[in-house]
Specification:
By secondary structure, this protein is mainly alpha-helical. The protein is built from 18 helices and two strands. 68% of the residues lie in helices and 2% in strands. Helix 1 packs antiparallel against helix 2, helix 6 packs parallel to helix 13 and helix 14 packs across helix 15. 37% of the residues are buried.
Length: 313
């Protein structure tokens, strides 16, 4: 059954990231019973014909729509939070969800300043009566555990001084660990963990440069088989490129809800920090401005709020 222009607009209001509240109110709120019946019959991806001859919501779509209606609320709540509380709650949520989203812990541990990460650990104490470190150690099993505990426990030097000979030596250490990954998983190498969890970001950026001189590749390109290490290196050495990738994935239509959450998380947590650089990197990598991509992908109040935050810089 063909949809009228109004109901095509209504169908679009239910699609994408967030919902178009204004269209839902103006079109759905003013519709008559027969018009709503026509809409239900014309949108089999939203409604299905029941054996007792009525159109019923597709249960999976209802669950998805609940998430979409919540996007605006969640973004506003996160934005209003103290950054320490926000990061503490994001870590707690990640631990509940499981291994597929542990990259969020890497992101928070490696892209915050030493004081910001310390503040998040303090907030975690207040909110959950545990330390962040003990919960990460308790919930995460396997070889990733040692790395993630070390990262959330870090308090890095943030000055500009770097010893170039040490950076070269540690680039050699990382290169050796990557080359011998078939014998020992680099994430289980104590020296790799020491370097990535204790060295300053300025130092690690020099290590990153020397690694390429040694191997001919960026280190993150050689870590495709070790996702957490790859994320760690990117967050410490090329954070804007990392955030651009998270945003690009989140703005796709065919990804799961955990990946889509990256859109809210990155924009809310970086709007006051390095959004200008992230926008520049995103456009350079993907050939479209971040604002335009949000405009074509998101809906309603959620879209407007994200665009407001992105436009702050």
């Amino acid at each position: 059954m063909a949809l009228t222009d109004e109901f095509k607009t209504l169908n679009n209001a239910f699609s994408g990231l967030g919902v178009d509240e204004k269209s839902l109110i103006s079109i759905l709120g003013n519709s008559h019973p027969e018009e709503r019946k026509s809409f239900r019959k014309g949108t089999p991806h939203l409604f299905k014909e029941d054996e007792r001859l009525f159109e019923r919501w597709n249960d999976d779509r209802v669950r998805l729509l609940k998430h979409e209606f919540m996007r605006f609320k969640n973004a506003v709540v996160l934005w209003a939070m103290h950054p320490w509380e926000r990061d503490a709650r994001l870590v707690k949520e990640t631990l509940k969800k499981g291994p597929e989203v542990y990259g969020v812990i890497v992101e928070i541990a490696c892209t915050r300043s030493s004081e910001e990460l310390l503040g998040a650990r303090k907030a975690y104490h207040s909110l959950f009566d545990h330390s962040m470190e003990e919960d990460v150690a308790y919930h995460i099993d396997g070889p990733e555990s040692k790395l993630l505990v070390a990262l959330v426990s870090a308090y890095r030097y943030e000055g500009a001084k770097v010893k170039d000979d040490t950076a070269k030596s540690e680039a050699q250490t990382l290169s050796h660990a990557v080359k011998n990954a078939d014998k020992t998983n680099p994430i289980e190498d104590d020296e790799v963990i020491r370097i990535l969890s204790t060295r300053s970001k300025a130092h690690l950026q020099e290590v990153y440069k020397h690694y390429k001189e040694i191997s001919g590749h960026n280190i993150d390109e050689d870590l495709d088989a070790a996702l957490r290490l790859k994320e760690t290196v990117q967050c410490l050495c090329t954070p804007q490129t990392y955030f651009s990738k998270v945003l690009e994935l989140a703005l796709r239509n065919d990804v799961d809800k955990n990946i889509k959450k990256g859109l809210t998380r990155v924009i809310v947590t970086r709007a006051d920090t390095d959004m200008k650089e992230i926008k520049e990197d995103y456009e350079n990598q993907y050939g479209v401005s971040l604002s335009n991509k949000i405009e074509e992908t998101a809906n309603g109040n959620y879209k407007d709020f994200l665009l407001t935050l992105v436009a702050r810089t």
